[in-house]
Amino acid sequence: xxxxxxxxxxxxxxxxxxxxxxxxxxxxxxxxxxxxxxxxxxxxxxxxxxxxxxxxxxxxxxxxxxxxxxxxxxxxxxxxxxxxxxxxxxxxxxxxxxxxxxxxxxxxxxxxxxxxxxxxxxxxxxxxxxxxxxxxxxxxxxxxxxxxxxxxxxxxxxxxxxxxxxxxxxxxxxxxxxxxxxxxxxxxxxxxxxxxxxxxxxxxxxxxxxxxxxxxxxxxxxxxxxxxxxxxxxxxxxxxxxxxxxxxxxxxxxxxxxxxxxxxxxxxxxxxxxxxxxxxxxxxxxxxxxxxxxxxxxxxxxxxxxxxxxxxxxxxxxxxxxxxxxxxxxxxxxxxxxxxxxxxxxxxxx
Length: 350
Known about the structure:
Helix content: 25-40%
Shape: globular
Number of strands: 11
Distance between the termini: 29 Å
Structural class: alpha/beta
Strand content: 15-25%
Radius of gyration: 19 Å
Number of helices: 10
C-alpha cells in the first residue's frame, strides 16, 4: 500500500523535471485532494459501445475525414497511406479529443489536480466550446488525462524511481469524469527505471473499460540506469508495438471499440524507428507534440518531429504557464492549430 504522504513527498521531489529542457522546450510535470467518491456523482462512463453493437465503418467518410485532417498537404506524407480502417465505434477521425492533463496529488502537473473538480471541468468545457466554434464539422470528445504512474525523484522501495498511483485515485478520476456526460479518461504511464511491460498489466482492469484509453511518455522512459530528469528518455517502435498489441488483444477479448493510444514527443530520439510502428484496427495511435515554448518554437517542433515522421493521428499540447514564459507571452489558439499540417485530432491542456 502506497501512503499518501510518501507519494506527495516523492512527486514533489520530481519538481526539478518541470524545468528540465531540450531545445528550449520542456514539460511541467506533482496537494489537491479531490474529495470525490462514487456515491457523490452520477453519469454514464460508457461513452463507447461494444464494437458488435455499432455499424461498420463507412470507408468513404473515413477517407474524407483523414483527408481533411491532412489540411492540403501535398508531400504524400499525409494522410498516412495503407493505414487499416478501425473497428466500429472509433472516436478518430470523427471527433477531436480535448483533454485536461494532471495528477490529483499535485497542483504543479496540470489543470487536472490544480483546480477543484467542478472548476476544472468548467474550464475544460470552455476550451471545448472554442473548438466547437472553430471547427463545427468535427464534434469534440471531452476527456481527462491522468498520470497514473509518475516518474519520481525518490527511488522508492524497489529502486524504480516511479510511483504508481493508488487505485482509489484512479477511481476518483473516473468518478470526476462521470460529472459530465460521455467523458473519456486517459491513463498515462511514466515508467522511469521500470519498463512498460512491468507497468501496463497493472492498469489492465481499467483499460478493459470502454471509456478508458492510454498514454505513454518517452521522456521518462529511462535506459541504462539514468535517473528521470537527468536526460530525456526514449521508446523504440518495438516497445510501442508491444503496447498497441496489448491494447489490441484487450479490445478483441472484451469486444470493445478501438482504444486511443497517445505517445508524447518533442525530440527525435524520444521515438526511434517510427517507420516500424504497426497500425491495427483495434488501436488508434496519436503522436502528441508535447513541447512547451513560444508559438514559433512549438510549430517548429511539430514540423520536425510530428509532421515529418508520420504514424497515424497527431496531437498538440498547450501549457497554460510554460508557454507564456517567452515573448510573445501568449498561448497558441485553436485558429492557429487548425492551420497545422496535419490538423491535430487530440488537444491536451496542462
